[in-house]
Write a structure and sequence with these properties.
Layout: E1 6-12, E2 24-30, H1 37-42, H2 51-70
Length: 73
């Protein structure tokens, strides 16, 4: 059996400050996708594409789409 990789996410409930008890739990996520533990725990997606690369891809796609709609090859 190969090594199993997983992420841990620690959640603490926002209980009242004067309460001596703290509610918390740990969530365990196997790594079966590109989502990291941070992304799963906080519900956000971290973009690993540079703004320059994203702009170039968008620019190229827009030019291609415009050329096709105008009938330019």
């Amino acid at each position: 059996m190969k090594d199993i990789y997983f992420n841990l996410a620690f959640h603490i409930s926002p209980e009242k400050k004067n309460n001596v008890m703290i509610h918390w739990h740990i969530e365990v996520y196997p790594q079966i996708s590109n989502w990291s533990g941070f992304e799963r725990a906080f519900g956000v997606y971290m973009n690993n594409v540079s703004p320059e690369h994203a702009a170039e891809v968008l620019r190229s796609s827009c030019r291609k789409e415009l050329a096709e709609s105008l009938g330019v090859k």
